[in-house]
Amino acid sequence: MAYIEYLPEDQISPEDRVPDHDNIIQIHSVHSQVLRQHYDLYVELMARKGPLSRIQREMIAVVVSAANDCHY
Q1: What is the domain partition of the chain in residue ranges?
Q2: What's the CA gap between 43 and 59, in Å, rounded?
Q3: Helix 54-67 vs helix 32-47: angle between axes, to the nearest 10 degrees?
Q4: Burial category of 17 from C-beta neighbours within 10 Å (exposed 0-12, middle 13-18, buried 19 and up)
Q5: CA dist., res. 37 & res. 18, Å (int)
């Protein structure tokens, strides 16, 4: 498993901080604008209205993570 350093939340500019309590996308904090953009994309794909329900989207994410041998 790779180890990627990331900035603690208090070192990220306030306008770029995101509620990532599981630190899944926190690896983008080394470039905090990308962190904010990645989070905004995640919210758009997973939470906004679309043809799939939130449960269906989460199920697809779980299957993809399992296929990629992700452990989180």
Answers
A1: 24-72
A2: 16
A3: 120
A4: middle
A5: 10
